[in-house]
Amino acid sequence: MTAKILILPGDGIGPEIVAEAVKVLECLRQEYGLDVVLEQGLLGGCAVDALGAPYPEQTQRQARAADAILLGAVGGPKWEQIERPLRPERGLLAIRADLELFANLRPALLYPQLASASALKPEIVAGLDILIVRELNGDIYFGQPRGIRKLDNGEREGFNTMRYSSSEIERIARVAFEAARKRHRKLCSVDKANVLESSELWREVVERVGADYPDVTLSHMYVDNAAMQLVRAPKQFDVIVTGNLFGDILSDCAAMLTGSIGMLPSASLDRNGKGLYEPIHGSAPDIAGKGMANPLATILSVAMLLRYSLNRLDLAERVEAAVGQVLDQGLRTLDISAPGMTAVGTQAMGDAVVAALAG
Ligand code: NAD
Fold this sequence. Notes:
The protein is of the alpha/beta class. Helix content is 41%, strand content 20%. Residues 13, 17, 73-76, 89, 92, 261-262, 278, 281-287, 293-294, 297, 335 line the site of nicotinamide-adenine-dinucleotide (NAD).
């Protein structure tokens, strides 16, 4: 059956990097018979400009009908001052909530060719391969009540609510245990159970779900220690599962271990494997329109899309191998540049991946 893929280029460098990922999809269609139709849509600042909302109804209809979605990035200085509900980032939160994309999978994989790009010593990060599974629909980002209120003494107070129900914890825990089964069967659950009640429940439920996965070694770690361990000895981790807030921070920390934000893809999945795929970086307004952005994170997001939504592991591996090949050829965008390597722009990098795929 033909799979429908919705393409949401977004803002800033989004359109530039997504164009390269679309070339890869077109190549897979022509050379490998991948059965997909691509449709374009608007999300973020460009949607605010064209249709007055960051996640307009038109995009909502397209997203609900799609089997998978490929997103560039949203946001930029142009929309920073507008009222909060219209901000591009709200579009991202809205599409995740609307499609119930509750599981965010973020691999932090260090390509051996880029070991020197990490801020850490090569011996600490060489061979790094971590998967962070972050819950995406709950926690303090969505908890009610929230707001800014005036206290009796006249002072203002900002407040948010950290909350997790046991069913929300259970479904993300199951995704993480299943993922660990496909890897090295080690799962570390990260929380702050020594201080927070929502973490206390988190730990209890993860432990209970763990009884169904006796083949996976489960451990628990407090988030402050996890942050430290990620920098001290990151290779001790295989899969990490955590809530929305802690996952937001830890996954960025893990990303930096690899040296380039321009290399890392992500997937956000619903319970049926439908997913939104996007690079972990933002819209990089500082380099937008200059043809300098690294498209590899977006191209690797296509590989995740093939793996998790289209069940085409064979093609996912081909795309990942093609990325490895262009790195072997010494091609580097500015963010991963190194002495002796060949500097290329966004389009040349995309063309090289397509050539490696087609060759
Ligand atoms: P950013 O990730 O856009 O940029 C951080 C730094 O990394 C910049 O110097 C940028 O040039 C560089 N960079 C990012 N992606 C790159 C790539 N593919 N190739 C080369 N260099 C790259 O983060 P920021 O500057 O904090 O945010 C910029 C905008 O993006 C903001 O409006 C923010 O809200 C938005 N944002 C969106 C998402 C998303 O769409 N998922 C995520 C994070 C930030």
